[in-house]
Amino acid sequence: MKVHVIYAHPQETSLASTLHQTVVQGLTEAGHEVDDLDLYADNFDPVLSREDREEYHDITINRRKVADYVDRLMSCDGLVLCHPVWNFGWPAILKGYFDRVFLPDVSFKLTDGQLGPGLGNIKKLATVTTYGSKRYRAMFLGDPPRKNATRFLRVVCNPRVKVQYHALYDMNNVTQAQTSAFIGKVHDAMRKF
Question: Which residues of 99-129 are buried (b: 16+ CB within 10 A; e: fewer)?
């Protein structure tokens, strides 16, 4: 299986970086072909410009600035997002990725006024993330990152997509043993992806 990993964190010494490395290692050990995209290292431009928005619905030209990213996304069988939760959402660079790459005729099809999934190639989807807040606080606020990963992304993928969500809550207050256990859990999940 070809798995596209999308990573979004600017610091090489972060827990997110360790989790990213764990994701890639686990997938590689399982024999998957990994297409690893580090949005920061790639200098991805997350800004949807005025011109981009004006061209958004024109499927003859809307991909021209992000064609490589679209091709990578559309050529994979699985997708794994690896990122922290910031302000109860995706990091801005990752949100910008979705704004710029999840275009009409890419992530969704509009046929005779009916909306349908565009990423039928993606049969497995996973998110590996960390939260600064406790789980109960995230739940009280509706846990938007979990909903984005398990609902929004699900509907643009293959109708039978299998979804995983791996989150370490309250990351600043967990013990080293709890952090290590989470890393081990992620490694095992990726080996079974």
Answer: bbbbbbebbebeeeeeeebbbebbbbbbbbb
How far, in Å, CA of 70 to CA of 83, rounded?
20
Cα radius of gyration (the chain): 17
Listed in sequence order, the DSSP H helices in 148-175 are: 153-156
Q: Distance between CA 186 and CA 111 in Å, rounded?
A: 38
For residue 122, give the nearest of 74, 82, 164, 81 by alpha carbon: 74
| 114-117/108-111 β-pairing | antiparallel
DSSP letter, residue 13: T
pLDDT tens-digit map of 78-123: 999 999 999 999 999 999 999 999 999 999 998 888 889 999 999 9
pLDDT recorded at residue 42: 98
Report the pLDDT averaged over residues 67-88. Answer: 97
**Alpha-carbon distances of 181 from 118, 137, 170, rounded to whole Å:** 36, 22, 14
Query: What is the C-alpha to C-alpha distance for residues 102 and 136, in angstroms, rounded to an integer?
Result: 31
H or E element at residue 22: helix 15-29
